[in-house]
Amino acid sequence: MTTTMGSQDAMPAAYPMRLEVARPEKQSRLTNFPLGIGLFIRYILLIPHLIILYFLGIVAYLLYFIATFAILLSGRFPQGLHAFVTGFMRWNTNVTAYTYSLLDTYPPFSMDQQEYPLTFEVDYPDASSRLLNFPFLGIIIRTILLIPHYVVLFFLGIAAFVVIFIAQFAILFTGAFPAGMHKFVVGYTRWSMRLTAYTLGLTDKYPPFSLS
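Now predict its structure.
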């Protein structure tokens, strides 16, 4: 009994950013057609999203910059600003998952969590580090700390795009994204979004070297 309790206490806490993508049983052969044809169709369909996200991204980074001064004074990321940056990331993640052929459901034009086969959540922190969020200096510190992640993610990204390329042929012949491949690409996306959430100060918890 003592051993069991000890092992439970040793379990790491869940990371404050979570991403899950439900794997569809069947997918469109047209919008997942290999050799870039399906990707081209998806990008055309996503043009309205890409335009909006461009401007939302500028606002999100500006709001984080403003939030660094609030954190410096109060030790907390203003909740409304945190919600906006989280919403921007959720919208961006929906579009990214659609681009990677992880789902065929067209992304909603919303920063809120919708009835969509992708779930993106970031816990609001009780307090934020003044050092890691120090205006100008904090983002440099975070970037340096993330260098090992960027190296690993570079090679994982190459592997993920190879997997997507192969999976599109599987979808063409079977109508489904192979489960193991889908899980890997979701894991790569999750890892990448954790780095973005950390960079934007949504969490100060250092990201794990993990796809799960």
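The two ends are 29 Å apart (CA to CA).
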